[in-house]
Amino acid sequence: MKRKIPATILLVMFAGIAVAQAPAIKRTLLQKGDVDATREVVLGMAEIPAGGAAGRHTHNGPETGYILEGSAMMEIEGEVPKMLKAGDSYFIPAGKVHDAKAHGGATKVLATYVVEKGKPLATPAP
Question: Which of the four, 20, 25, 66, 89, has the lowest number of CB atoms within 10 Å?
Answer without folding.
Answer: 20
